[in-house]
Amino acid sequence: MTERVIHNQWSSRLAFMLAATGSAVGLGNIWKFPYITGEYGGGAFVLVYLVCIALIGIPVMMAEILLGRRARANPIDAFRSQAEAEGRSRAWGGVGLMGVFAGFVILSFYSVVAGWALAYVFEALSGAFDGLDGETSGALFGALTGSPQRLLFWHTVFMLLTVAVVARGVRSGLERLVTLLMPLLLVLLALLVGYAMAAGEFARGFHYLFDVDFSRVFLQCGDDGACTFTAEPLLAAMGHAFFTLSLGMGAIMVYGSYMPREASIAGSTVMIAIADTLVALMAGLAIFPLVFANGLEPGAGPGLVFVSLPIAFGAMPGGQLVGVLFFLLLVFAAWSSSISVMEPGVAWLSENGHLSRGRASLILGGLAWLLGIGAALSFNLWSGEDYQLFGKTLFDLEDFLASNVLLPLGGLFITLFVGWVVRRRGSEDELAMHSPRLFGLWYFVIRYVAPAGIVLVFLNAIGVV
Ligand code: PHE
Q1: DSSP per-residue codes, 405-454
Q2: 418: closest CA among 380, 448, 376, 457?
Q3: Which ranges of 262-318 would DSSP assign to H, the alpha helix?
Q4: 243 with 57: CB under 8 angstroms?
Q5: DSSP per residue over 53-77, as a string?
Q6: What atom in ligand 1 is closest to the CA of residue 276?
Q7: Rounded distance from Cα 21 to ligand 1 centre (Å)
Q8: Nearest-CA neighbor of 364 among 350, 352, 346?
Q9: Does the global pTM surpass 0.90?
């Protein structure tokens, strides 16, 4: 296998951990997890999501990191060179290309939502949260999403922020940014959970998140009381497991390629997954008690976090400062994620010597910005049925395509590649796990369990199983 020299490396294992956690923890945890949990009806959805994290997410993350670190190259070249080394077709590089495409779709709508968070930093600063209730908070959010100008402005600002960091390169740009902010975000979330305990309907929120009632999630009942099984929550839970851990598109793979050899892949993976899950559950525990206490609808959709939390900020002592800090940290969490969404494509374009990092990130960011305009307009000018497909707006379609189709599909190919193309010995050496038993277990999951699980969920979603 040809070693590549272009590659830069993280300064330490800790730097890798922070960057990978920065990639994983983002809008997926704080914005998307609560809102889709609300849409799909609570506890049973959460349980399925947790099972997907453990059974598919963790093994796939290990596979991605090992592929990246072994090849020391961007995902496309990593697939190509390792396929070649095993005497297989370079067409495997297509999996990397699909990941670059997925990243471009994700970035387009991600930047719009991160733009909401940016806008809310200034809303908080201006004192707009003071004395909000369910209705006025909804109106404040509606005024933002109803304005194409404001959405496009903040979308543009966020995209520029992302491009600016990616253009400078991961080492100089990113490491420093994340080091300080992740722990601060955790502290703030803990504070919000505490507030929800004191002022919200905590028990109800807790039960909503953790009481498993499959019929509420997987049965769709009409007015006549007739119920049918729906597979969509299953696909959404699996898709979100990929999304929240940044899997299936090469983001973690490319970060893995910058990882020092001596660091433990399995150990790092488990820690990242735990941190990511913790943040999501804490966000849920902060938000649902407030949702219930203020008469909001858990299934209200993408605005859930932006409507519920400002009510708390408007009522708690020191809430203005806490509100500013919270949305600022949310922006940083989103930023450290969006950077990683772009990295596979930028690494690929620049490592092949055709483009500088700066040019590559401008081009990719520009394209995602264009597609993101459609996502922004989905909340106002293009919200009507005329602009929908299968009852979904462009925003919903982008999210669905990326999270529920492209990421799991990419994940499927990754499991097949590591389970059936790369020789067992190669993976064993790279993972260097202490226990052969544990390695055997992981290998079994990557070879059989995870791919079968992904295929089953896909077949289920299209009504075959
Ligand atoms: N994991 C990020 C989040 O939860 C989103 C992401 C998806 C980042 C895919 C990189 C790749 O917000």
Answers
A1: IIHHHHHHHHHHIIIIIS-HHHHHHHH--S-HHHHHHHHHIIIIIHHHHH
A2: 448
A3: 265-293, 304-315
A4: no
A5: IIIIIHHHHHHHHHHHHHHTS-HHH
A6: 4
A7: 10
A8: 346
A9: yes
Please say whether the dihedral angle defined by the alpha carbons of residues 16, 342, 245 and 337, taken in this order, is positive or negative: positive
**Ligand 1 atom closest to 24 (CA):** 1
In a domain, 3, yes or no: no
- At residue 228, φ and ψ (nearest 5 deg) are -125, 155
- Whether 249 lines ligand 1, by a CB cut-off of 6 Å, is yes
User: How far is Cα 201 from Cα 435, in angstroms, rounded to an integer?
Assistant: 45
Q: How far apart are CA 437 and CA 440, in angstroms?
A: 5
Best of 170, 276, 277, 340 for a ligand 1 pocket test (most atoms within 8 Å of beta carbon):
340
Give the CATH number of the domain where residue 93 resides.
1.20.1740.10
Q: What does the pLDDT look like over 356-367, one tens digit per residue?
A: 999 999 999 999
Residue 232 to residue 458: CA distance in whole angstroms: 10
Q: Is the pLDDT of residue 215 over 50?
A: yes
Q: The domain containing residue 132 runs over which residues?
A: 13-461
* β-bridge partners, 214: none
Q: From CA 423, how far away is CA 86, in angstroms rounded?
A: 8
Q: What is the pLDDT of residues 136-191, one digit of tens each?
A: 999 999 999 999 999 999 999 999 999 998 998 866 556 666 667 888 888 999 99
CA 63/CA 405 separation, integer angstroms:
19
Whether 167 maps to a domain, the answer reads yes
Q: Is residue 204 part of a domain?
A: yes
User: Each residue of 134-160: b (16+ CB within 10 Å) or e?
Assistant: bebbbebbeebbeeeebbbebbbbbbe
Q: How many domains does the chain have?
A: 1
Q: Which atom of ligand 1 is nearest to the CA of 102?
A: 9
The count of residues in the chain is: 465
Beta bridge partners of 392: 389
Sign for the pseudo-dihedral over CA of 46, 52, 58, 62: negative
pLDDT for res 3: 39
Q: Find the helix packing angle between 424-431 and 436-444, rounded to 10°.
A: 130
28 CB within 6 A, ligand 1: yes
The reported pLDDT for the residue numbered 17 is 86
- Asked whether residue 217 is domain-assigned, the answer is yes
As to burial, measured by CB atoms within 10 angstroms (0-12 exposed, 13-18 middle, 19+ buried), residue 94 is middle
Q: Which atom of ligand 1 is nearest to the CA of 340?
A: 10
What is the 248 CA–ligand 1 centroid distance (Å)?
10
Task: Give residue for tokens 């970060």.
Answer: 255
What's the gap in Å between 100 CA and the centre of ligand 1? 13
For the Cβ of 23 lying below 6 angstroms from any atom of ligand 1, the answer is: yes
